[in-house]
Amino acid sequence: MAWYDEDSWATAAFAPKGSTIAITFLLAVLLPILLHQFIYRKATPTTLPSFLLIGPSGAGKTAFLTLTERKVVAQTHTSTAPLAVELLLPEGHTPQSSHYRSPGDPAYERSRQFQLNDTPGHGKLRHFATTQLANPTNVRGIIFVVDAAAVAEEAGLNETAEYLHDVLLALQKRYTGATSSKGPKEIPVLVAANKMDLFTALPPHLVAQQLEKAISEVRKSRAKGLKDSGPALGGEDDSLDEDREWLGEGGEGSFEFAQMEEVGTTVTVQGGNVIGGDGVDVKSWYEWIAAQL
Amino acid sequence: MLDTFEILTTSGVVLWSRRYSPVGPHVINSLIRDVFIEERVPLHQDDAGSKPAYRKEGYTLKWTTAKDLGLIFVAVYQSLVHMTWIDKLLDNIRALFVGLYGEQLSSKHGSVLNCDKFAPYFERQIQDLEGQSDSGFSAPGTKLTPPSSTDNESADESVPTVPLQKLQKPLYDTSADSTPVPTPDTSRPSTPAQSHLLAGKAGPGGKLSRRNKKKFAASSAPVSSGDEASVKRKGKGSAKKNRVWGDFGAEEDDPSVVLDYSQSDLGDEAPEGEALAEINPESWGSRTGKGQFVLKDLDMEMDQIIAEQNAKKEAPASAASGGGLVGSSLGAIGGLFRNVVGGKTLTEEDLAKPLKGMEDHLLKKNVAREAAVRLCDSVKRDLVGLKTSSFTTVEATIRTSMEKALAKILTPTSSLDLLREIQTVNAAGRPYVLSIVGVNGVGKSTNLSKIAFFLLQNHHRVLIAAADTFRSGAVEQLRVHVRNLQELSKREGGQVDLFEKGYGKDAANIAADAVAHAAKTDFNVVLIDTAGRRHNDQRLMSSLEKFGKLAKPDKILMVGEALVGSDSVAQARNFNQSFGPGRGLDGFVISKCDTVGDMVGTLVSMVHATGIPVVFLGVGQHYADLRGLNVESVCRLLMS
Q1: pTM of the full predicted structure?
Q2: In Å, how far is B338's CA from the nearest CA of chain A?
Q3: Which of A210, A273, B332, B613 has the lowest CB atom count within 10 Å?
């Protein structure tokens, strides 16, 4: 039986038969559905505005995240992996963009959503944070959590200042390295001085002062320090180090957070405590988040 | 007794925990830091079956992980107590938890997991295992019961001596026959707030108070119906137990009943437990039946989940071995396809060959065998059970994972800013003392003068102490260096001098004198050169301990050459241990990096052996050829 015979499949496929029509119809209806199922099986990536939680280990990043997520602080330990959680801005805070929306508006609910990205703070695991910093697609702001009690001591202050210096330098590089004339979108930084409930904690303005002073020191010793081994090991000539960049106004004088505004980064310092005997106080941080949304 | 059991995620959130006595969070934090992040503690396994243990402040921690879900299960108990069933408990709990909440965990996007209902499962596991260990091989020390109590017959005789403990024991025994369990124990967990209150009850102390309660209860009036019901239920449920106790006399029976009531009274008065609420409205007889049913159900469910999880684990192995010719070839094609497209779940067999290749590659880069094996192991641990992401081959996945492992091992935990440290020490009013040790001919003096040059550029006043009193020409060599450095630093404003006492003197005393001299004459940094010594010569190495004690260096750096091969591990280890307990090396200077090209494996080997960071690299012959470590570039070189 050849394909051109009267009862072959080719003839049947083009004949006005009931079964052929039914198959064609089914195919026409089901194919797009199947294709859709296959291609859009994974949910489209959400483009929620996200905030990055950065800071040295033990500052209270994960605790803040759990507090925002479930209204109570869960017990936490040292993180070894990042965590991203989609959240709603707590009641009583209105996002900046929807001040004039009525509460019943569905867009209002949507504008209250945001994503919080927790990163491990241990020295060996900061690459999670730095990779996110290098390519901040949706990052609306960075919350740098600081242990206000640890900052009162030399060792804690140095560690915090060095980390903050690196974060700010990465932000500055992103601004100065931008190719468009307009410059990249601003990424503000909130220095969240946590653990205000502790007796030894410094008040927020002192935290800011100490950090500014310590960052100046870090910058100074970085300037004097040894060069990186990178080019030398790669066999390149490392006599040129023009591409080194200094935080703040060319690395001169003492560093102030206000200097960062020039490169599109506003630094705010707010106090709060995630855990505490007399209740939790993180209102000022939520206000800051609301202002960025 | 178990102190704490916690189930936490790798992102640091505690999902479920049960504490019997307070254990500071820093204990588990240090476990995570030392074992999971820094991998500092060698995971020595006594035998294949047992899990590694980590000791901290009198506690022993045992743990297990569920890699794909990012879960860590930690059990904390006092090191004094020998607990044989912890491994089994960890395995069972993992199987249970993954079985019950695995889907929820992998599907959801957040840190919240409602696992209040997990408590009864946990309690049952504890009871089962405790009971097994007691009746099975009468583990000494797990309980304070005499060995005679292991079976019911002997229990009969020994009743009068320890009646109360005996009461608990048969209960556990009968529980193995899936007859009911004391209500208070099962109803307790359903009220989380209550568990804290009752935390102390589980230990031997609990028994003591129970005894008191008994005394009190014996004289007190009868109790309310609801509570009595729960008590009665227990008495009826375990018929075996009744028989045992009948011998002793009715008197003993009653107080025990009341005693248990008193405990449940304490626990369940205010917040009524689920189990109790369920039972209350029913009559006595069916109550027993009901209780039995509920508990049996839990038991069966538990066993089923554990069996399921175990079967799942064994499934891939059996599937690989089984299957006809067609099945295996189809699987091979599918595997190849998966390998290209991604989405393949990695097993140990998949990884074995590429990992071998990776190990050879590392060995070619002059990484010591030991370090290479460890790196490959950590990559394997990282990857087994994971799915490759789309369009990546197994090799590529291993590569990225290895890069990550290398970066992790090389990245220092704390800051290595020498200048700031000098500042801090000088602020305290004493000179900063840095000493250099190492094997012969690795470049100790050369690197010392490089560091001196670096410090002079930063306007420090440096005193170089010639504590190599052994090798001829060592002092003269330093004198030449100092003269050169004086010439070089004249314009810069730094100041440098040599402190020497000739040959043959005791190095430790010279070093101590140099520090005292520096403090007097206003030098703010002292650099001490030492004689080179073979790291496996005990006689030479023993003098280092005295040196460390007398000179009290703020920083001890060891110089190692990049040229050295697998000996680097032993060198680093021996030098690190030579300063006596409580003192070790603070960092490495890797010299002659310019002579090895991309074979910089020595860096990894040394850091692997000790967990101490690399501070400086020597990359040339000039004073200025000293560099800080750039982790990324080293990783790039090693992986190229």
Answers
A1: 0.72
A2: 18
A3: B332
